């Protein structure tokens, strides 16, 4: 399992994470990322990795 976290202080709402990984991330009322599924594996883990690698602010952290 991989743990997914978003640093809300860094996120400015580009939306790449919830576009690339809609099953893992969602948007709050301001367009900032929120985590829908905190512990991921398999296909969801790959989506989370894609989102982490494409976040301009590096607001997404994955840990094992």
UniProtKB/TrEMBL annotation:
Cofactor(s) for this UniProt protein: [3Fe-4S] cluster
Any single Pfam family the record assigns to this protein: Fer4_13
Transmembrane segments: none
Gene3D superfamilies found in the cross-reference section: 3.30.70.20
Signal sequence range: none
Keyword Iron: yes
Gene name for this UniProt entry: fer_2
Xref: InterPro entries: 3Fe4S_ferredoxin, Fe-S_cluster_ET
Tagged with keyword Lipid biosynthesis: no
Organism per entry: Mycobacterium botniense
Superkingdom of the source species: Bacteria
Keyword annotations from UniProtKB, A to Z: 3Fe-4S, Electron transport, Iron, Iron-sulfur, Metal-binding, Transport
Name of the protein: Ferredoxin
PANTHER family in the record: FERREDOXIN
Annotated function: Ferredoxins are iron-sulfur proteins that transfer electrons in a wide variety of metabolic reactions.
MF-aspect GO terms: 3 iron, 4 sulfur cluster binding; electron transfer activity; iron ion binding
């Amino acid at each position: 399992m991989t743990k997914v976290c978003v640093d809300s202080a860094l996120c400015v709402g580009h939306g790449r994470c919830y576009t690339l990984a809609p099953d893992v991330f969602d948007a709050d009322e301001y367009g900032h990322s929120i985590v829908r599924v905190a512990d991921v594996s398999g296909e969801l883990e790959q989506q989370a990795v894609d989102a982490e690698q494409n976040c301009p602010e590096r607001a997404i952290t994955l840990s094992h």
